[in-house]
């Protein structure tokens, strides 16, 4: 891993012998007459709470290091068998709540082609180690004379509410956004669109969806990354006018839908679409929005397109 990353584990080793960690564990064992596992768990909880309370992001991220070290010591104390990620032999992308530095150090570079975690940030030691793995792979490919795209762009599908809400944060990490409306609508409204008993509640023009989509598009523009949309909503003529007004510039759809959406885009002015979108954002229900959009579209599109749209 190199000196820069070896220092992470040197810090872990120092933590084990540090009086504020090991010393407190020994003190609890002697003063409270508890076993080592219990004492370690209490000290771990105290230290994690302390690091978690820091305002500085870098210091807060060190909570994960405390947990990593304490968990490994606890595993050894209890004699629990541990399987690490070096046992993975086939190409995989790892999805996990979190990964510790000691987990990440066991990555086999070739089988593990990527990972995503719910927790952790850019300053976490896990991220630092993983990025070094991804750079090492590039160096390895270079040394072997194998061709690859060094400027390969990596983006994300925004199709769950949690991703939409933190789109501004994700935009700092991604090269592009693709909004997946089918799932985003379903998960935002808690509606199973395949269930005929509740499918009527599947409302793409719901005010909550309008705000989520606008937030995603605005976050992408602020970060200077392209935002596209796929799913049924992107190919619907009525929704197209609102989406253009919200600032969406890239639509992904079935080939059969391209001609009519292209005609609509050529038949409307952006300022009109923007006004319609702004007015729609002020409406309180999906029905109000739909009625307003249909009426607005009908007054601006050629008759042939009106019939197809409405």
Describe this structure in words.
α2 (19-32) packs across α3, α11 crosses α12 and α13 (270-282) packs antiparallel against α14 (286-298). The chain has three domains: 3-78, Enzyme I, Chain A, domain 2 (Orthogonal Bundle), CATH 1.10.274.10; 85-143, Phosphohistidine domain (Glucose Oxidase, domain 1, 3-Layer(bba) Sandwich), CATH 3.50.30; 156-309, TIM Barrel, CATH 3.20.20. The chain is built from 15 helices and six strands. It is elongated, with a radius of gyration of 26 Å. It has helices at 3-17, 19-32, 36-52, 57-78, 101-104, 125-143, 161-165, 167-170, 181-189, 207-223, 237-245, 258-267, 270-282, 286-298, 303-309; strands spanning 92-96, 112-117, 156-158, 177-180, 227-230, 250-251. The chain starts with a helix and ends with a helix. By secondary structure, the chain is an alpha/beta fold.
């Amino acid at each position: 891993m190199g000196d820069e990353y070896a220092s992470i584990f040197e810090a872990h080793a120092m933590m084990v012998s540090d009086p504020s960690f090991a010393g407190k564990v020994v003190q609890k064992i002697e003063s409270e007459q508890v076993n080592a596992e219990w004492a370690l768990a209490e000290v771990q909880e105290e230290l994690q709470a302390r690091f978690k309370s820091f305002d500085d992001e870098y210091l807060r991220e060190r909570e994960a290091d405390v947990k990593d070290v304490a968990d490994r010591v606890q595993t050894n104390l209890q004699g629990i068998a541990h399987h690490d990620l070096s046992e993975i032999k086939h190409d995989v992308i790892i999805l996990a709540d979190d990964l510790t530095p000691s987990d990440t150090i066991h990555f086999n570079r070739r089988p593990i082609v990527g990972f995503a975690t719910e927790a952790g940030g850019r300053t976490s030691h896990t991220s630092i180690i993983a990025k070094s793995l991804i750079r090492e792979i590039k160096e390895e490919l270079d040394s072997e004379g194998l061709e690859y795209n060094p400027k390969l762009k990596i983006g994300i599908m925004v199709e769950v509410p949690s991703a939409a809400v933190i789109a501004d944060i994700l935009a700092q990490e991604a090269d592009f956004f693709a909004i997946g409306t089918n799932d985003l609508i379903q998960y935002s409204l808690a509606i199973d669109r395949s269930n005929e008993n509740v499918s009527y509640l599947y409302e793409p023009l719901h005010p909550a969806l309008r705000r989520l989509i606008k937030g995603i598009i605005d976050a992408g523009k602020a970060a200077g990354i392209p935002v596209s949309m796929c799913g049924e909503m992107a190919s619907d003529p009525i929704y197209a006018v609102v989406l253009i007004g919200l600032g969406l510039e890239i639509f992904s759809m079935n080939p059969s839908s391209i001609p009519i959406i292209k005609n609509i885009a050529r038949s409307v002015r952006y300022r009109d679409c923007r006004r319609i979108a702004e007015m729609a954002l002020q409406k309180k229900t999906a029905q109000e929005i739909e009625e307003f959009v249909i009426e607005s579209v009908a007054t601006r599109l050629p008759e042939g397109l009106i019939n197809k749209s409405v």
